[in-house]
Amino acid sequence: MQRIPDTPFPTFLVETQESANALLADEITALLSERSGRLVLGLATGSSPVGLYAELVRRFKEDWGDLSFVKTFNLDEYRGLPTGHPASYQTFMTKHLFSKINLGTEHVHFPPTEANDFDAACAAWEETIRSAGGIDWQLLGVGRNGHIGFNEPASPFDSRTRRVELAESTRAANARFFDSADEVPTEAVTMGIGTILEAKRLRVLAFGETKAEILASVLRGEDDSSIPLNALRRHPDTALYIDAAAAARLG
Ligand code: GLP
Questions:
Q1: 10-residue block means of pLDDT along the chain (251 residues)?
Q2: Which of 69, 146, 184, 229 is paired with 156 by a 20 to 30 Å CA distance?
Q3: 170: how many CB neighbours lie within 10 A of its CB?
Q4: Which residues line ligand 1 (CB under 6 A)?
Q5: Is residue 235 flagged as an active site residue?
Q6: Any catalytic annotation for residue 145?
């Protein structure tokens, strides 16, 4: 692994996605032991974290034993999908992680997707994060347009958990998880950028050629606050891990 020079926040080129996954799993292992298992994790979906979740499951089976005191908060969820829809983020997390480790079900949290008073439900959800002591370690992926969670371009850096409309480019990028492009919801709920920036550590994975263009504009460009990924410049403990395909346009 090699640190890429002259980037606005720590960015590492990894030889393989597995090496990034092992490194992040090592961090979680160390935190679990420091906190005697009482860890608060912020989790992400998409294709980037799949290998990390497989590695966490492997370690759980090998030597972690008990994760029943770990609390999790997922970044985002689609709105309007029925419970159990194969493309929902709850289904994704159940499949890749939650069904394979022994989290307490009462410790797993997703932002609200339906409520009479949606703003109040989002505020209550943020209060749940605060009363858990805040997020110790937050995983993020990067959208092709630079989104984090479902904070699309031009989301304010002080935004909180809220309902959002998805960019057409995001719906197109995520159509691969649905039977047809029309089925992709137009709305979602996401932790805000301000919420994300309150996590104690941010760890970001961006793999593959579809991320090369946005990474070049963030890592080699001006501090453009309309691109959510640039919010990472405002966090004291952040690290981005990218593979050679994602780094292809850095020059
Ligand atoms: C979705 C999620 C994001 C994620 C992004 C990238 O849009 N809402 O949180 O970062 O996908 O996904 P991938 O890792 O598949 O490129």
A1: 97 97 96 94 96 96 88 98 95 97 95 96 98 98 97 98 96 94 97 98 97 98 97 98 97 81
A2: 184
A3: 20
A4: 44-48, 75-76, 141-143, 149-150, 170, 174
A5: no
A6: yes
